[in-house]
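Hi W.,

Here's what went into the run:
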Amino acid sequence: MNTLSFDSKRCERIRLQLDSYLSNELLVETATEIVRHLESCEACSRDLESRMRVRDALQRAVAKQPVPDSVRAGVLRKLRESQPRSFTRPSATRWAIGLASIAFILLSLFAANWMSLRRGEQLIASILKLGVSDHLICAIKDHNYPEVANPPDQIRNKLGVRYAVLLQVVQERLPGFEVLEGHICSIPGSNRKYIHFITRGQGTILSVILTERNGASLPKGKFLASAESAGLSIYEDHLSGMEIAGFESAQYFAFVVSDFSQHQVLQVARELAPALNEKLHVTGHILMPSANDGVADSMTPRILTETTRCNEKSRCRVQEQRQNG
Amino acid sequence: LERGLFFRPKVQLEGFEAVAMPHLTDLYRTACLLLRDRHEAEDLIQDTYLEAWKSFHRFEMGTNCRAWLFKIMFHRLHHVRRRLVKTSRIVTIDDPDGQVELAAEPLVPQEIRDEDVLNALAKVAVEFRDIVLLADVEEFSYKEIADTLRIPLGTVMSRLSRGRKLLRQELAEVARSYGIDPRPKQAGAAETA
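Here's what came out:
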């Protein structure tokens, strides 16, 4: 008869560790020690076997527990139901992104247009500044006009045969204005020449100036134009204390400059533009003589050019072109 | 801003389902055994998955998703039990670790029927039942159980030992009810022929 030392200290210690052994939570050395003991101790082996039997039975019984399909369906439904909130946010975010994109595009277009307008305004101002400068230097500062208007024939002689026809346009289209002077002029230091009609009306001086565009052009766009006359866009600005209206015709820029009101200057330009445009288009491109050498236009051999100083102080040179014969 | 608060593309929910749904069966069976009420268990599982989905952005892919889900479930289970205790549908023991030590090793019948072991488990106090299920059925490590139940490792060990013994005792009672006379083991030496 074998007597198992059931109450032995060793069995007691082993049994205290059987649960950890069953859960595989022991160190290898301890587990090995228990295995050795179990090999020699039937009581402890029975104890372990009993515990394992219960564990296996429990695992088996739990694994057989049915899981209705409704459980999975219910969970998925709950998750899907939680989606609208989840989707609302991205959807709202997408809307926000979309609206922000549209706003950005609109702002970009607005900014581009604004920049374009600004550039256009700057270009207009830089071109109109020519007319203001010509008016201020030649008419106002140097006073290159007589108190009593020069005879029309004298003015025509100064302008030469090709520009003489313009005098009539100015006279006809500016009723109430007296044409005091007409000449071809240039500002010292500049090769640019301009045809200058100096008129007087309503107690003040008004210049009608034509100058070659030389490839430059006023910007297109209704937003930039101040008025329109016979299909011509008229641009207006207030520069150096003067009101100036200008338009583009054939190869020329035409300016009306005065210290009148904006409305009056625009009105004069509107009256002048169609007839002047017609004459300039009929006349075609006219090569102006050089400001320095006064060489006659090669296309107009009959024109004699005489360069004189119209005013010593301003050194503004008036090229008096006379028709030869 | 937390990643999960805003962008929740559908693909992420599908990813969550792919990772989390395979553990539904284990969670549900455990919930049933812990609550002994299929409707309560179903609600618990739905709440568990919903909470897991909400905090899925905090889950690190590649880590133990099953343990993460069980942790969430037991966290919610705590609130469910408090509610059920108030309505007297569940009984807990005040000091589970201080329960009277079981004297002799109970003799477990050789053949254990499924219903017997489940009935026996149902009679084990919930504090022990939790750990027995987590250790013996779900086969979580002590550390994972401690983390899931937020209790010390030593408590896990002691409660598991007591829980298993209580289960064996209940099964021994079942054996007696079947007319099997399990020989109670004596504290002293045992003789074998």
